[in-house]
Structure formats: structure tokens, C-alpha cells
Amino acid sequence: ISDKQKLDALFAQFNNYDKLVFVAIRAFQTVIKIIPAEPLEIGSGYLYGVWGGLLYCMLGTLTGSFVIIALSKIFGRRLVNLFFPVEKIDSLKFLKNEKRVYTSLFFIYLIPGTPKDILTYAASITNINMVKFMVVTSIARIPSIITSTIVGAEIMEKNYFFAAAVFIA
pTM value? Predict the structure, then answer.
């Protein structure tokens, strides 16, 4: 990452499909949760700038979230239980509160570091409207992703102090 030319060369080998590869990696990260999201978000800002990084991260996150929802609808509670004990899901009262569920989800997804993708698995086996869920949670993810892409873009410009300030803030 410290050598932009090497990183560009790595992605150049995908013959202009680098953005698609990045979106696929981000979607995979969303579904599997092996790789933490923040390094990918910072990397996207480094590679594609603030707005491009936001766009490709959001596309990957949306794709991954749709995969989570589809898999959860197909395999149900057994799949979700691999990542999150079903008893814990049943104890999440806010997922059952029809009046406040989307407001609660918005604020949970707004907070950096919360287990958003695990909550996507949990929510997908409830009676929540998945279209509303995707809209609300996607909007809530933007501030966290954009601050990470700003950090990546500033690192690329060697504005380390500003990048650190944004990261800390």
C-alpha cells in the first residue's frame, strides 16, 4: 500500500475490471466477514478517491447484503446460527418493535465498528421489510465509509496528519 505504483500495477492486471474485482472483494468481505471492512474502505479511497471509493464500497456492500439476504431466505435460521446464535437474535427486542425497528437499525448502522453484516443476517430471518431495511441501513453506512475513503485519499496524497485527524475523529 505504501507504493501507489505497485498497487495500481496489481489492479491493472485485471484489464480495466479492477473496479469490478474490488466490488466483488467487498461483497465477499460483507458475506464472509474474514476481512475487516475498514482496510478495504481506506484502500478504496486510496485507489479511487473519496467519491469513487464510496461508490465501489457501497456497490460491494449492497451486493454482499443481497447475497446475505438471499442465503438467509434459502437456508434460514441454520445458516444464520453459524454466525450468530439464534437465541441472541430472538432476544433482540428492537427487531420485533415495528414502530422503531428502522430507526434503531439506522442508528446501529450509523455507529462505526458495530457488527453490521451479522445484523444483516439476523434481520433477514425476521419479518422486517428487506427493501426498507436496505434503504435505511445503506444510508446509515455512508458516513462511516466516506470517512474511511477520505483517510485513504489523504494517505495517497501524503496528507498523513489530516488522514490521522479524520480517522481519530
Answer: 0.87
